[in-house]
Amino acid sequence: MAVPGKAAAFRLPPLPTVGDIIKLFRLKAQKQLSQNFLLDLRLTDKIVRQAGELKNAHVCEVGPGPGGITRSILSAGVEQLLLIEKDARFIPGLQMLSEAAPGKVRIVHGDILTYKMEKAFPKHLKKNWEDEPPDIHIIGNLPFSVSTPLIIKWLENVSKKDGPFTYGRTQMTLTFQKEVAERLTANPGGKQRSRLSIMSQHLCTVENCFVIPGEAFVPKPEVDVAVVHFTPLVQPKIQQPFELVEKVVRSVFQFRRKYCFRGIETLFPESERLKRTEHLMMTANVDPTLRPFQLSMSHFRNLCNTFRKMCDEDPSLFTYNYREELRQQKKMRRLLRSTSQPKQIEEESQL
After folding, report:
1. Which of 174, 194, 304, 351 has a CA 20 to 30 Å removed from the CA of 88?
2. Is 156 annotated as a binding residue?
């Protein structure tokens, strides 16, 4: 009997197990989509707990598959659950869960990379960026093939305060390959320090929550999986446009094992490369003999701020593409060789 004045806790009615759902609808993980199913509800409950208090919250689950994490989210007492699933084979099983939780579940058959998240939740949930995070959460056991491009996309959304972050500092709880999770959370000097470390940590508080062994999944992946929690920062650690920060960070890590000046050189055209690189390093007060993984967040902040001033003075720097210049040089060399070859043949024939 429910206690007077208190809403009864939501409980799903008896349902087929996740394993039964897989058999019932003859679901098979597709290797080309990097699909791996998590059947142990103790582990799905543990993932959902990392998101924090979900009672009466609005949640978006990315790639629910056969619905293991979905059950744990519903059992946490959410107000509304939006499911975005690209693979049509899983929709009937998710509809079964929707019918077991009337009025709570909305299913979208679509691609999370193109879905317009800025209209996914009610407007009244919006909060100012400086306030506490809104009662909105994104949770997902992401396919390995989509996890990195998706988190980069969402980090850009954080920077621009659009997409799912039009509602405020929406929190995310996501799974990644263990190695990718280590990159996301790596500190300066760590062997996993990378572009992902800087791009995520300058915009969010990033926490590597726990590791799930590969054998917990069906089929078993070749790597372990880690659960990572993101909370956007009120103020980014590098206050420059996302595209500029990514350009600088990507260039620095282009030659990961070499001195950092080698990557920074690629920001500038060959004709003025040495002079501009020296100016950037000196003004930003960065030791050119440090390796990329040794650079701190303040080093990257100084590099980005200085590069921004250089771009303001010469806007062509921002659009310069090192790899395109290499391609053009290679094309020119081929052209020169092809034009000089007939002359050489003619000279040899005359001799």
Report:
1. 174
2. no
Same domain, 221 and 252: no
What's the N-to-C CA distance of the chain in angstroms?
A: 108
| Alpha helices (H) along the chain | 18-24, 41-49, 68-75, 91-100, 144-160, 178-185, 195-201, 242-252, 260-264, 273-284, 297-313, 316-319, 322-350
Tell me which residue has tokens 């939501």. Answer: 10
67 annotated to a ligand binding site: no
Q: What is the mean pLDDT of each run of 10 residues along the chain (351 residues)?
A: 50 72 68 75 96 97 94 96 94 93 95 93 97 98 92 98 98 97 97 97 98 91 95 98 98 95 96 96 97 98 98 96 89 80 59 49
- What confidence score (pLDDT) does residue 3 get? 46
pLDDT of the residue at 300: 98
85 has binding-site annotation:
yes
Single out the residue of 79, 19, 86 nearest to residue 54, CA to CA. 79
Q: Measured between alpha carbons, how far is residue 134 from residues 14, 19, 50, 77 in Å? A: 32, 34, 16, 17
- On whether 36 is known to bind a ligand per the annotation, the reply is yes
38 marked as binding residue: yes
Token representation of residue 256: 């990961």
Q: Is 111 annotated as a binding residue?
A: yes
| Shared-domain flag, residues 50 and 116 | yes
Q: What does the pLDDT read at residue 11? A: 75
Residue 3 included in any domain: no
Range of the domain at 252: 242-335
Q: Which pTM value belongs to this model?
A: 0.90
| Number of alpha carbons in the 13 Å side-chain half-sphere of residue 100 | 18
